[in-house]
Amino acid sequence: VTEPPRERVDELRVPWVHSDRTVPRRVVRPLQSFLQTEVASAMVLIAALVLAIAWANGPWWQSYERLWETPVGLDLGQRAVADDLRGWVNEGLMALFFLVVALEIKREFLTGELRDRRTAFLPVVAALGGMVVPALVFVAVTTGTPGVEGWGVAMPTDIALALGVLAFALPWAPPGLRILLLSLAIADDLGSIVVVAVAYSEEVAVISLLLAGGLALSAFALQRAHVRAPAAYVALGVGMWLALHNSGFSPTLAGVAMGFLTPAVALHRPQAVSREAHRVADETFDDPDPPDADAGQWLELARLSREAVSPLARVEGALHPWTSYVVVPLFVLANAGIRIGGGSLAGPASRRVVLAIVLARVLGKPLGIAAACLIAVRMRLARLPEGVSWGRLLAVGAVAGVPFTVSMFIAELSLAGPDLVDAAKVGIALSALAAGALGFVLLRRTRSGRPGP
Amino acid sequence: MTDDQASSRSNAPDDGLRLPWSRSEAPLARRVVQPLQEFLREETSSALLLLGAALLALVWANSPLSESYERLWTTELGVHVGSFSVSEDLRGWVNEGLMTLFFLVVGLEIKRELTTGELRDPRAAAVPIIAAIGGMIVPALVYLALNAEGEGARGWGIPMATDIAFALGVLTLAARAAPPSLKPFLLTLAIVDDIGAITVIAVFYTSDLDPNALLVALGLLALIVVLQRIEVRAAVVYIGLGVGVWLAVLQSGVHPTIAGVILGLLTPSVPFQRPRAVSDEAHRTADETVDDPYPPDADAPQWLRLATLSREAVSPLARVEAALHPWTSSAVVPLFALANAGIVLSGGVLAEAATSPVTLGVVLGLVVGKVVGIVVATSLTVRAGLGRLPDGARYRHLLGTAAVAGIGFTVSLFISDLAFPRGGLADLAKVGVLAASVLAGAVGFAILRSGGGARADEQR
């Protein structure tokens, strides 16, 4: 094919990042394709963790606390919503993270792996075993100390880190293995949300709660009435967040509620939109006069094409890059800066918490998952997926032992006193390291052994 | 495959596009929402909405509930980060915050006129340009003649403005039978008038300047130009930078709405993609997607890509205008009128206004000065052979249009608050703006109707 010398009018103009210039070709695009891998989101988390610890223990350690304790607020007359910067990250931005988590859960249950009750049974049972056993281990170790309140810290699996470890250890893992880990972790997330909502709410302000419920109902009613303007739902979500902010519940639950309320079905049949696309493409001109005479048609087509995609996929596509590369790293940066040797590990209760988390994650999690699966399979209630041997199941259980974002979140929520919270964070970091290494080694050992059918 | 599916599904009830509730056959949607939307699309309706808001404000401020009016609009709303804070009362947020969006749309309109509209060739548009200049200078001179000295002199900018929405609304309402060329004439005139008003706001009503903040604003604007040059297209980036420019201008002492005008002028008026290239993509996407993908949303990336490309077939200018114009004309400007037109008329304000040179200057400037300025400037231009009257228009039409241009309303009220401290002289000026706007509208309406009536009657 020869390039015509004049300007090609029928070619799309690519933006700078997709152009053939040196910087986009050598730097931006390789970075983009790296960021799309599962290893990348795990690496970003680890980088944020290392940065937070280095910052909090380096020569500028005072600026760390000063920055995250900067008060940020909004006042209207006598009313005020105020918190420090860390609070806005933990309760504000993290609502977006939980929104995406809820979208993932909803998608998996409606159209994904958890849709079919028979195939969903195993990961759900595994997730249950992987939550109950670590919590029991934690309570057993810390019983009698104030740290026992933090039993929820021992439960959640970090999806990003766990998938990163799996992708790093077995780049060509059988799809059944990855799906098992993903659906297990998603069922686990659902459990964490229930724990946050039910077990770790302070005394509940009924009126605020009713208000939030009313807003959720009106979001539902608006959907029923086919109101499609995203602005309406964004406003309702913000309202729900504000209502929950005063209710004693974690306001991040507003994100969960809005996520579950997001429809998973496209507003239009794709076929109807296809017909419109042909029509607009035929009826518009290349050089309209006045310019933008066809603007109405093009903008209509843009809206219809978006409506050929389910709101769930649209919101997830729009938010997921932000939550995994901005919100969660910021959360880690704001919360993981523990001062080592700051005396937080001095008390016996603190040491108990660290020990409890490490034991619960490194031993409790894989044993709980494997035991639950073993019982389910022995009772002929479920079968192991293709390509998953018992050895690999145990390895996946170890990988699922990697805690992080949600555990840290629950630590902030559940434990009283900065010493215990810091101890829990140390425990989380240590067990992430230990469980990740254990899972990595176990997965590598199963690499050559192809499991039979 | 798509065609097979298409034929097999052609009988399915949900074959076509699904209408949103507002366009459905539900009684509430059909009886209330659709007529309301229809009404809001009309040109006269934004004028009526504005008028309604101004009347509501007047009634509210003079009713037994008047206390709540002042209490609401003086409620403080603030954002603070550490020791940095931005705090204003609600009226301030409307006048300096939301009105920035209004001026952004004005900036977009000016840019469109300059690049593809009537003002592209200034010589062809000489008549409305010169008419607008005459319609600014004469009212200012009339005002200054009455307020040569004293505090009141600062208000000379008030009678210079023309309210585009209001003026076009009255023209449309009055002149169904008048030559259609009057509308672009008035639009061009009003846009040139807006340029003048913006210059006046930026240059003459700027309090002490903070050069550092101004430098930050200029730096951010330069950054926007650079990002546009390397074809960064993400709207989020420009919204973020735009908010930054607004904050910097707010700190600098220049009125923050100027940030909106400049951002509007910087918005590109050429689409990123050739429409033909997008048409090809639209055909391809329509052919390659399936009606019932598995998993559901398997085609999502293709559809979202087509949505992006279709938007890029429209210039950013038209896109931003389509997104903002409904909001500015049916929410921002009525809110502005509601927040600012509520003058307490009791306590001798009316009596004071009747003899005040400020009120009188505004009224005479808008009602008499505008007409004289526009008519004289136009006839001089025509006599000098620099241009012609709008097609089919006679001097009677010109007179009526000039009177309609005396509806200063939004921008005049806006400048009243800039020129004078709130209360006192500002209230007197606002009484003048309201009276003059009603008067100018009525006079213009009457003149335009008086001769056009015969043809209008024939049509009925």
Written overview of the protein:
The complex is a heterodimer of chains A (453) and B (460). Chain A has 453 residues and is mainly α. Helix content of chain A is 68%, strand content 3%. Chain A contains 17 helices and 2 strands. Chain A has helices at residues 22-35, 38-57, 61-68, 85-110, 117-142, 159-169, 175-198, 206-224, 230-245, 252-261, 270-283, 295-307, 311-335, 348-378, 390-400, 405-414, 418-445, and strands spanning 71-76, 79-84. Chain A has a two-stranded antiparallel sheet. In chain A, a hairpin with a 2-residue loop joins strand 1 (71-76) and strand 2. In chain A, helix 2 (38-57) packs parallel to helix 13 (311-335). The longest helix of chain A is centred in the C-terminal third of the chain and has 31 residues, at 348-378. The radius of gyration of chain A is 25 Å and the shape is globular. Mean pLDDT of chain A is 87; it is low at 1-7 and 449-453. In chain B, helix 3 (43-61) runs parallel beside helix 14 (316-340). With 460 residues, chain B is mainly α. The relative contact order of chain B is 0.15. The N and C termini of chain B lie far apart (55 Å). In chain B, strands 1-2 form a two-stranded antiparallel ribbon. Chain B has helices at residues 2-9, 27-41, 43-61, 66-73, 90-115, 126-146, 164-174, 182-204, 211-229, 235-252, 257-266, 275-288, 300-312, 316-340, 349-355, 357-383, 395-404, 409-419, 425-459, and strands at residues 76-81, 84-89. The longest helix of chain B has 35 residues, at 425-459. The radius of gyration of chain B is 25 Å and the shape is globular. Classes of the chains: A mainly alpha (453), B mainly alpha (460). The interface between A and B is large, with 66 and 72 residues.
